[in-house]
Amino acid sequence: MSKQDLGKLESVHGISPVFLQRAAVVAIISFVFFLAMLIAFSIRQNVGYFLLATAFLVVEIFTMIGWFSQRGTEFKIFENGFTYKKRSNLWNEVKSVSAKQKNKYEISLNNGEKFVLTEMIQGIEEVIKRIEREITKRK
Questions:
Q1: What's the 3-state SS for the chain?
Q2: Domain ranges of the chain
Q3: CB 93 within 8 A of CB 82
């Protein structure tokens, strides 16, 4: 399905700034501790400092991988449907929305597929309300 079938773009909901900020803080702190442990290792020549530096480097790497892998995650609402990651659906393909946990919603499609939206998406409450409104329009 192409974006032309979905109609006019109405809104875009990217990653919440809270999650971006958390990732940035973890990346900065782990990098600072990595450098501090390398300096401590070079001064004291104790292998424990080297192991700590390695652990902080691993945290840094995983944080950056997570940050870059989620960088393009957007929920786009169009007049006839939505796109999320590599998924593109019309409103009439959505079967139901259910809350799995607090701020975690499961979207069921008519073909049996399911996917989960979390609070990581900015304005998740508005997105869920719009999906529910489109479902009730069809009934």
A1: CCHHHHCCEEEEECECHHHHHHHHHHHHHHHHHHHHHHHHHHHHCCHHHHHHHHHHHHHHHHHHHHHHHCCCCCEEEECCEEEECCEEEEHHHEEEEEEEECCEEEEEECCCCEEEEECCECCHHHHHHHHHHHHHHHC
A2: 3-11+74-138, 16-69
A3: no
Residue 32: pLDDT over 70? yes
Contacts of 93 (CB under 8 A, 6+ apart): 81, 109, 110, 111
pLDDT for 43? 94
The tokens 């719009």 sit on which residue? 130
pTM of the full predicted structure? 0.75
- Fold entry, domain 3-11+74-138: PH-domain like (2.30.29)
